[in-house]
């Protein structure tokens, strides 16, 4: 694509080049676009919030001197062995199949180095992943690919997945290019076919059933493991309440910026709500149930578009107990790196734009099952890079927390935040900067 | 456990007096062997789930959801009806229901044998991944939906949408099929299928003439996305 030099030419805001390309592709192939990544459109996000650092009315902590805790305990409500993580940043569920073995290996190494958890995905648990992960969360998905009770017992926590932010209400898909013999074997599928994951669990419907299902998982694992429930953000207030009523120890809430390995573009961009808009209703639900920020309560993990320590701190300030990263973790491993620019060009993409995770030709060796491409990712080096990145996220969050006078990052609170836009103020339920105004909230004064 | 009754041949737990947690924990003991009887289930959920030992467990009465869920190695007999998801995700061993089973019987089961001597409700053998299921009576709608591997035998009739979006599970039905789901078709019954079916029926305690059954399987036309198939998606 090129930008014309003539000032007389005007591109349509409605039918821009991306819209024209999508229509052209649909007309040519008769198929909708399937891609990876999460929502690419501009959305209200954590960038629209700012922290109010301490000054006269608040007392800051000394950076590099006074400690600021970062540890978090997840799932102490029912589990004999809750997760004790050193940092409040976890690695989100991503499947072996969507990701290469090297990528899963690197995620485990990086997470373990800094004392946090990683998560399996649709496709089961690999021995490499279990071996490299100090804390491993085992996803229990509608497809139940590779689900077996031995792996359930090996897990440190179990995550019942109802949906994800990129596609609330949709099942997964893994196109034939990535169904290698090993992936097919783990999923009990013929190699090379386009695999369709179910969007609903096969043996329960609704929260009353889920309560029984969660108890079954607890019984099978002798009440040792925390049980998470993961939902894609759409109706977080109700979904979180129902998840708690169903017995969840931890709720994972994934906003629409959350990534996917392969989903219809129309789904990614038009279903679900932004992460920023999802947190406050979820926290309100937990607060109304009396389980928010209590030792025996239900923890909230928020994901979808976390990039920096500021994003981490803002999510915690709004009420999350921890965050999860997926896309950012892959970028830390080398996804979309300029060093692969020439290889991206060969497949019609570019560094910073590559999202065809579904076709399995990722030159970074991450979103692929090609053994040659996989060699482009050294799992040891990838693990080191991820650990570095997780440390930076933590240090950044601590820096902000200290500036706000907090001795622990989870002591951050909505009162520490203001919003830059009316929309973000309404969504995050914090006042517009320089005012006391929270759109939609009852008017109160000092 | 004060309600535990041991004899030389079996150990009995009364769920009317002993909490389910204690019973399941006892059945998860390392190195477990022998025969066990669970009385007074009264429709309890999650009875005898997560077993992983070569034991025989008899449940004397009706059970609720997920009885014998994720079973490994054990032989479980339910003397009564079973609720949703009996033998869900079973890996090995066997589960026998003498009465009827509710929906999603043997959902996602990877191995072993489930026998339901009565009827099984909707979504029987949904997403089946390698187990064998023999139903003495009828099965409800959407049975074997997205079933990937294993065999489903129905001695009676099948409801609407049988085998919808089927992968490689083989289905044998003796009676009528209300309708077939997308990509599920009747297939020729070869000698190997007659032999296979005879073996499955025998394992379940039946001696029907396999030639009275029809075999159904995947047409494999939906294995790749294509706009020509849009009416089937």
Descriptive report:
Chain B: This is Protein glxC. Chain B: GO terms for molecular function: oxidoreductase activity. The complex is a heterodimer of chains A (446) and B (233). Chain A is α/β, with parallel strands linked by helices and 446 residues long. Chain A has a single domain (63-428), classed as Alpha-Beta Barrel (TIM Barrel), CATH 3.20.20. In chain A, 33% of the residues lie in helices and 14% in strands. Chain A contains 15 helices and 16 strands. Chain A has helices spanning 17-29, 101-113, 127-132, 149-154, 181-187, 206-220, 236-245, 265-270, 275-288, 309-317, 327-333, 341-346, 371-374, 379-403, 422-428, and strands at 34-37, 49-51, 72-74, 83-85, 89-91, 117-119, 135-140, 157-161, 173-174, 195-196, 227-232, 250-254, 260-264, 299-303, 322-325, 417-419. In chain A, the strands form 5 sheets. An 8-stranded parallel beta sheet of chain A has the order 5-15-14-12-11-8-7-6. A two-stranded antiparallel ribbon of chain A has the order 1-13. In chain A, strands 2-16 form a two-stranded antiparallel ribbon. In chain A, helix 10 (309-317) links the parallel strand 14 and strand 15 (322-325). Chain A is globular. Chain B has a single domain (41-206), classed as Pectate Lyase C-like (3 Solenoid), CATH 2.160.20. In chain B, 9% of the residues lie in helices and 24% in strands. In chain B, strands 1-2-3-4-5-6-7-8-9-10-12-11 form a 12-stranded mixed beta sheet, with helices on one face. Chain B has 2 helices and 12 strands. Chain B is mainly beta. The longest helix of chain B is centred in the last third of the chain and has 14 residues, at 191-204. Chain A binds chain B through residues 29-31, 143-144, 147-150, 152, 175-176, 187-190, 193-194, 196, 198, 202-204, 209, 212-213, 215-216, 219-223, and chain B through 20-21, 24-25, 28, 45-46, 49-50, 52, 64-66, 69-70, 72, 84-85, 88-89, 91, 103-104, 107-108, 110, 123, 126-127, 129-130, 145-146, 148-149, 165, 167-168, 223-228, 230.
